[in-house]
Amino acid sequence: MRLYVLLALVSLAFAGSNDTVTYIEQLYRNSFGTPSRNVTYDYVIVGSGTAGNTIAARLAEDPSVSIAVIEAGTFYQAADGNLSVVPGQPSRSSSQTSFLDQAVATSSLKVYNGTMARRILFDQHNTANGYLSAGAFQSPQLLMVSGIGPHKTLQQYNIPVRSALTGVGQNMWDHVLFSSSYRVTTLTSSKLIDDPDYAAQAVFDYSFNATGPLTGFGFISFEKIPQQYRANFSLADEKSLA
To answer: Containing H/E element for 118?
Structure first.
C-alpha cells in the first residue's frame, strides 16, 4: 500500500558557506520532490534525522520501490556547520553525508526539503507504508492529527478517532543537562562568536583549503567533583555516578 502525504512548503534558508550550498544543489538537483504536486511512493520517511536517513538508505538499496524523505527544516550539514568530523578528514560527518547522500546518488529517492508532513492518510484497510521519525515532539503530534492518540485529546480538537491509543504523546521526560564554564588561556570556539574577522577567515580557510578551526569541534572536558563534596554523597548517589 502507498502512503499519501499532504505537503506544505515552508520557508527554507541555508546557513553556511556558498561552497556547501553549491555542493548540496549539485548532488540533489534531480532528487528534490515538488511540493503541492500529488504523488505517491511505496515508502515515505517523515524526518531526515539519524534514524530517517539511515532507513531511507537501506530502503533505497531495493531499486523496485519508490521512496520519499520529508524534512521540514534544512539539512543538518548546511544549517549547523562542521560540529563533528570524519576521522582523519576535515569534513562534516552526519546522517546526511553518511547515508542520505549515497542513496540520492545511486537511486531514484526523492527529497522534500523544507516541507512539512501535515497528516497521514490511510487506505481502505486502515494501513499506510511509511516510517515516522520526526522526533519526540513531531512524531506523536503527527499521529494525533491523523487520528491516532488519546480519545479525549482527539475529541477535544474534533479529530476523528482512527485508533484510540492512550500512550501517544504522553509520559515525556526531559533530559536534564547543565554545564560549567571556565576561563582558559587557549583559543576556543568562543572567538568565532566574538571576533567577526576571525570567523570570516575561518569560513574562508575551511571552504577553500579545508583547514582552520572549523575542521574540528573545539574542546570538551569533564570535571571530577572534589572529594570534599563527594564525602557527603549517599551510597545511592555514588552508585548513580559510578
So the answer is: strand 115-121
For residue 114, the tally of other CB atoms under 10 A from its CB is 19
Cβ–Cβ < 8 Å for 114, 72? yes
Q: What DSSP line would sit under 57-75, residue for residue? A: HHHTT-TTS-EEEEESS--
Collapsed DSSP state (helix, strand, coil) of residue 8: strand
59-109: pLDDT as tens digits: 999 999 999 999 887 655 444 444 455 555 666 677 888 888 889 888 999
Query: What pLDDT digit, counting tens, does each position of 34-45 carry?
Result: 877 888 899 999
Task: Check: CB of residue 103 under 8 Å from CB of residue 109.
Answer: yes
Burial class (CB in 10 A: 0-12, 13-18, 19+), 171: exposed
Closest by CA to 161, choosing from 169, 170, 152, is: 152
3-state secondary structure of 190: helix
Q: Is the pTM of this model over 0.85?
A: no
The residue ranges of the chain whose pLDDT is under 50 are: 1-21, 77-83
